[in-house]
Amino acid sequence: MTEAKACSGTAASGEPNGRHGSGLGSGLGVGPGMVGPRVGLGEATRVWARIAALSFGGPAGQIAVMHRIVVEEKRWIGEERFLHALNYCMLLPGPEAQQLAIYIGWLMHRTAGGLIAGILFVLPGMAAIMALSWIYVLFGAVPAVEGLFFGLKAAVLAIVVQAVIRVGGRALKNGAMLGIAAAAFLAIFLFDIPFPLIIAVAGAVGYIGGRLGLPAFRGGGGHLSFAHTVADADSLLGTEMPAHARPSLARSLRVSGVCLALWLIPVAALLLILGPANVYSRVALFFSQMAVVTFGGAYAVLAYVAQQAVDTHGWLRPGEMLDGLGMAETTPGPLIMVVQFVGFLAAFRDPGSLPPLLAGTLAGLLTTWVTFVPCFLWIFLGAPYIEALRGNRALSAALTAVTAAVVGVILNLALWFGMHVLFHQLRPVSASGIRLELPVPSSLDPSAALLTVAAVLAVFRFKLGMVPVLLLCSAAGLLLRVIG
Asked: Which residues share a beta bridge with 426?
């Protein structure tokens, strides 16, 4: 496709040039059911590359950047359409910010636009995490590098606590939502109930509550709020459904076949050729399963990945999971890109006949492939049907309940990280179906506790941003290692 229209099958306004800044509106004749000047695929590619380069700070920051550029500045789509797409992406497994980029790219420029938006969103983070993974395994034992990562752990812990409070403040608006969050936390913390089951139950409860019209399940799922909004009628895409966005069974079968082949054929080939015990087969199978069952956003996903990668597979240690999250926090792209670091370490430590660095690099790329290819499937297959369901209250109610459950899951992640950052030893406890690990008080790390307190004060008392906190804590960690 050499050039794609902003909206296939709908008449363009006839403007001779492509002005897409904040001046787009009634002066260009954009109104209900109308489409303004075309957005060329080349311009769209430049915009998505810009968004990718600015995508720091986790999903909240990434979605805010996307809204500022796509809705407020370019006015490609309006507020209602943006939030409807976000609603759907938050219900999906995987990184909602990247899936939102795919969705908007697909709305504007069909499949080519979705591919460009989704791939560009991942590329900077993929390259950065790979480079940092090499540095980590080659120089991680050097005191200076070790100190930097030691400081990052404290900053990441403070940021995860902030995520609990931020998401909880938006999602826990009534007793029912507080109850769902508490139940989710107790289920995963005390009884080790699988994360996917918790999210599935919460979604079902929310869906039923929405169908019954219960007031507690209204509220839109704890969306981000934006200071500046644009009506759909004043946007480039307008209010009508583009022709290519209409559901089609033939298209659905075609999309499913291609995406499933790209995703699952490599996994099947590894299992058949190398066997299920090989590290590449295990990595491909685990992260393929993760792509299907990890709902609730990046921090909730990381709780599940940390539990499985550390406790079940033994690919890395708890502190290393925090190091990887620190890498993802300080680089552009989805936070879930930390899984590339997990896959890298898994094969680096079990390289077989390959050089460890090559084995780790291949496993990291394999992890990225099986993690993100399904994201394109969920959007290309489901988005046409979701476009036809704008305003569905039951879906919104399901999202509201899932978001509440995610608060409990992220709180569990914060406690898990906190215990492993602050204490050198944990003691397993098991009684009456309860299975958990508790810290050994005498193993408290004073330096880690000091840094964590400083990071929490920086975030909550002095309102410093994520990047300054990460940089300051890294510098403090480096100083402590040098003098210690």
From this structure: 439
